[in-house]
Amino acid sequence: MALPQAKLDATEARLAVAARPSGAAWADAARDGALARLRAQGLPHRRDEYWKFTNPDTLVQPEAPEAATFDETDAPIFDAVERLKIVFVDGVFDAGASDDLALEGVTIERLSEAAQSDIHWAKELYGVLEERGQDPVARPLAALNTALADDGVLIHVTGKASKPINLIYHHQSPRSDAMLHHVVKLDPGAEVTLLENGPAAARFNAVMEVEVADGAAFHHVRAQGRDHERRTATHLFARLGEESTFKTFTLTANGVLTRNECVVEMKGDDAAAHIAGACVGDGDFHHDDTVFVTHDAVNCESRQVFKKVLRNGARGVFQGKILVKPDAQKTDGYQISQSLLLDGDSEFDAKPELEIYADDVACSHGSTSGAIDEEGLFYLRARGVPKDIATDLLTLAFLAEAVDEIENEDLRAELVNLLEGWLGRRRG
Amino acid sequence: MLEIKNLHVDLEDEEKTILKGVDLSVEAGKVHAIMGPNGSGKSTLSYVLAGRDGYEVTEGSATLDGVDILDMEPEERAAAGLFLAFQYPVEIPGVGNMTFMRTAVNAQRKAKGLDEMSATDFLKMVREKAATLKMDNEMLKRPVNVGFSGGEKKRNEILQMAVLEPKMCILDETDSGLDVDAMKLVAEGVNALRNEGRGFLVITHYQRLLDHIKPDVVHIMSEGRIVKTGGPELALQVEREGYEDIKAEVA
């Protein structure tokens, strides 16, 4: 079907201002492929069904809208965690601020360098998982990223990584338009924890492709912080092997526009995928979690747990789908999305979907939005807890079910601290 | 200590008057009981004093040590020394009992210009008080009132009272849902808190709680008013004769 002219124009206008990086044959081929996909799809438009609740205009337009840089006065996140730091400033690798890219059980390379090598393992994954994730729903911003991103990290995990890898993003230029593409490949039985945090740029388009081989475990914890004016679109694509584990959690505060897509394909039997997120939004805030889990193997478990606390006109979106293919018997799929609306001005839109072709499965989904528990609030206040603190206590309690999805206790504690700090700062 | 004068209260959502001129004065060091049939306005009185939404005071006043409390927020009333033990303690999933109590204690200390209590001092204090109420660490760690039996919830109320050390305690139907043993435990907890500086207002439907918490003064409430006041013997009269006879007597 031919694309509407407006879509074609918007797509070409965006591409006109971008420089396509060049590399070795495999990288060129991947980028060419992505470009062709993108041109066939066209960039998202607010009339697209998949963008019904989130206006993509500012993510799509040629130039990034200006965003004030954020004064990072918070104590750095994950500082208490022994980790390997990889730093990007406005989407550009900062070697000086990063640790040596050397870690036991892992090899780490920059995409910009690896893309020049004629032979590289990333050939099998770069743009490949992204392309797999384009069906049945188009994700043009991810194709755009594959075509244009010139940096990111390629992480090959061969054993148990001795410590977490932390991707740290800084935003220094008010009009920076950053694109990063990361690829993580876990060999059979390998394990790694990947942390991400920091304001990346005025506009940030990030793609991460993760191959989790048989028996491997990937843990991902991400904090999207208080850089309020950011516009962010992220895609996380994962393919899971037998008895593998994939767990991702994102904590989000503020941000005029954030869309986090997570696309998981369960290809090996007995695998587990947990996708969770908690966000607190205040005022001019729009947060969209879009998740697509495909069960294509036997006896796999998937969980989607998303919680949002919204006030002063903040808007939250959840689009979550579980697709169970005909042979994916014994699937255990669970999905819950809930919002706590602290006032009548805020809005939560949820589109939960189940599509099941196997007959021996257990899938459940639920979505709720509600106001704060007035009885609980009064009880706390009657004991002397001021209303704002009582509201925050109930907020933390509401988010706990999602935060508890983080398996590692230290990381969970870090995020709870961070969240408490954010709430405390808001209280003044 | 607690002075209630000619208090008239309407339900906000319905055009319904619940309290029709309550007069009551509780002195420091005394235990007053309010008894009355269902629907007489006992619980409304406790909620209005604690500051719950949904009620409108149309006339009258309530003061604690001479300070008007009716214009205060619930947390300000608590900091001023008022405590309501709920008839139905609220379950708060996700908020740990200890976190809750520590937040409450420190908020009240802050309101009084005092420093926060250290975590260790607080833990020690709570454990001692919990032990006398036969509450174990497990109950302190669990989310507030979640999964608690009726008796455990009421013990948790008394524990909070002991921890917060209010000067005016209102107990709303604290005996409801309790078996005899649980009631004794709760009553002992309350009696341990009785002292010269503290006032109590015990709201109850039945006389049996007053066997364990001996009142100095007993009031009978009916249709939104205190209709009779007397000594402990009044509670026994209620037990013998029921409310109807007393209502007839004062009519």
TrEMBL record, chain A:
Residues 177-398 form the SUF system FeS cluster assembly SufBD core domain. Residues 27-160 form the SUF system FeS cluster assembly SufBD N-terminal domain. InterPro entries: Fe-S_cluster_assembly_SufBD, SUF_FeS_clus_asmbl_SufBD_core, SUF_FeS_clus_asmbl_SufBD_sf, SUF_FeS_clus_asmbl_SufD, SufBD_N. Pfam families: SUFBD_core (PF01458), SufBD_N (PF19295). GO terms for biological process: iron-sulfur cluster assembly. It comes from the Bacteria. This is FeS cluster assembly protein SufD. The lineage of its organism: Bacteria, Pseudomonadati, Pseudomonadota, Alphaproteobacteria, Rhodobacterales. The gene is sufD.
Automatic annotation (TrEMBL), chain B:
The keyword RNA-binding does not apply. Gene3D superfamilies: P-loop containing nucleotide triphosphate hydrolases. Keywords: ATP-binding, Nucleotide-binding. SUPFAM superfamilies: P-loop containing nucleoside triphosphate hydrolases. The lineage of its organism: Bacteria, Pseudomonadati, Pseudomonadota, Alphaproteobacteria, Rhodobacterales. SMART domains: AAA (SM00382). InterPro entries: AAA+_ATPase (IPR003593), ABC_transporter-like_ATP-bd (IPR003439), ABC_transporter-like_CS (IPR017871), FeS-cluster_ATPase_SufC (IPR010230), P-loop_NTPase (IPR027417). NCBIfam families: sufC (TIGR01978). Residues 2-248 form the ABC transporter domain. CDD domains: ABC_FeS_Assembly. Belongs to the ABC transporter superfamily. Ycf16 family. It comes from the Bacteria. GO terms for molecular function: ATP binding; ATP hydrolysis activity. PROSITE patterns: ABC_TRANSPORTER_1 (PS00211), ABC_TRANSPORTER_2 (PS50893). This is Putative ATP-dependent transporter SufC.
